[in-house]
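Support request, please re-run this one:
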Amino acid sequence: MTQAAALSPRKTPRQTRSRASVEAMLTAAAQILEAGGIAALTTNAVAERAGVSIGTLYQYFPNKETILAELVRRQKAQFFEDMGQAVAAAHDLGLREAARTVLHASIRHHARAPVLSRELEKAEMQLPLGPDVCAAGSEVDAAMVALLTHFAVPQPEVAARDLSALCRGMVHAALFAEDCDLAAIEARLRPAVFGYLGIAPDAPAPDGA
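Re-run finished. Output below.
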């Protein structure tokens, strides 16, 4: 068994009651992460908060790493969905608005729950998530390259990699420093992205605006 496979749930819930129990466990885990971080997450704490027995929890999640991996996979899936929709819409926009749209999507999933996102980003660095997540990420990367090619951006493969690293690096640095003001982070990122793409910066707001 690969390490990634070992971090998958032991079984898939089939019945309505079992699906509800799994959702309750994952919700409880997210709440514990938001309140106390990864150090506070234990299988006993999750079971107690979710209102299930530890035996029920172990039917699906043999350890806390498996719970973390499932939460990370869900966050990544939301990110890929956000990015896919934004990139598709951006083809019909000018370069400035396309860049703004994709940038907003790239950090939207963080903004939904900034503290939880920070803890899951920490967990992701330690957990192998398997080929399914890598494949989905490759699809988003390819879509970004196609978008940059559409706008005749030079070396679109390199540009896609650079822009991804720029956004990911700044967001991670802010979140790990416990700066969870995602609107402010996006505002700091925008001129960096615009500058890389050769887009003129936004005009300053008029006095009193």
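Residues 1-5 have pLDDT under 50 and may be disordered. Residues 71-197 form one domain.
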